[in-house]
Amino acid sequence: MSGERWDLLIRRARLATMAGDGYGALDDAALAVRDGRIAWLGPDRELPASATAAEEFAADGRWVTPGLIDCHTHLVYAGNRANEFEMRLTGATYADIARAGGGIVSTVKATRAASEQTLYAQAAPRLCALLAEGVTTIEIKSGYGLAMETEAKMLRVARRLGREFAVDVRTTFLGAHALPPEFAGRPDDYIDAVCAHMLPAIAAEGLADAVDAFCDNIGFTPAQTRRVFEAARALRLPVKLHAEQLSDQGGAQLAAEFGALSCDHLEYVSEAGVVAMARAGTVAVLLPGAFYFLRETRVPPVDLLRRHGVAMAIATDCNPGSSPITSLLACLNMACTLFRLTPAEALAGATRHAAGALGLADRGILENGRRADLALWNIGHPAELAYHLGYNPLSRVIRQGSPRASGVALLPHESEQ
Ligand code: NIG
Ligand code: FE
């Protein structure tokens, strides 16, 4: 029988497979790729002697993890809100600013006024910052257009980023993010427009992979959110929810009832909400960047989530208001320091559980048959990915089996014994 023929073979690596609990570490390992998928992995000494590869390199003890996945971002927007940052530092709260007509609505004005090209040009550097840290899949939401054409514009920009950069983009329609000024005092009419016109048109153009809403005292009510979810279900689109960020609305239970992929934020979630998420297999997406940036004090109930077996993902929530952060690694650090996750939980949150939050079963773990989206790191232990702050140890990225220019030089690595 002739030997295996692979496209790429990485030898003398240390793998954090992220399969099972912990890192799923495999020392002195090899990993082979064929047709963009992982074709073999295991101890280097067990490599089939007859196997050959078109390209082979030695990782020299570098760690290999699944490519990172940022499963919650509002990456596409125009302008910024540094002025509101200043206001909050002199006493105004995020909710005060939103109620006074600032907040999300001020980014809506800027985003509506921006051309597609401007939006693209402003989002691209943010995307590059994330890619330079090993991100290979990113979710991008709409929600700063709040009208048919401007929501579609945002999602087209997101799709274009996915075509022009070496990253997989998953898009989420977030029409129910805030009430646009022209619907002031008429939130139910706006939800009618979202359900009857905007969402069906967005879905028909293939612009959304999922549907999200902001259910909170400055967002939409559970009853309004339910209507959005029913419209999504009719179009067979999966749902997720900005839930219990500033108050407990029972959004987690509602989302679980619709089999939501994820509930995100969750600082105020109740035990009943956590139980409902556990039953539905809904992932908890924790967003420590928003918690940090808004100087919140109430942390999400991590122990409850653990006790009920709810998977926890970590994302940047990159947006101009509550989390102007373009570093997923910094968010791993904050998940540990602010929310008390272990570094292994944090890394699982940016790999396997982030994949779960996007409904992507083909990635997030190093395992035969999964996509060969890999990040190689100049580190001595995977806990370092959450430990450093403001330091990027990425060595190189392989995406679907092909090397990707990461913008970061391949540094010589001395493995630490
Ligand atoms: O995830 N909470 C609602 N949405 C965003 C913030 C958006 C904004 O302030 O522009 C969030 O925190
Ligand atoms: Fe968000």
Helix content: 25-40%
- Overall body shape: globular
User: Radius of gyration over alpha carbons?
Assistant: 21 Å
Describe the main β-sheet briefly: 8 strands, mixed
Q: Mean of residue pLDDT?
A: 95
Low-confidence stretches: 407-417
- Figure out the total of helices: 15
Short note summarizing the structure:
The chain has helices at 82-89, 94-99, 104-113, 116-131, 148-164, 187-204, 222-234, 251-257, 271-280, 288-293, 302-307, 328-337, 343-349, 352-357, 384-387, and strands at 5-16, 25-34, 37-43, 52-58, 63-66, 68-70, 135-141, 168-176, 210-215, 240-243, 262-265, 283-286, 312-314, 374-377, 394-399, 402-404. With 417 residues, the protein is an alpha/beta fold.
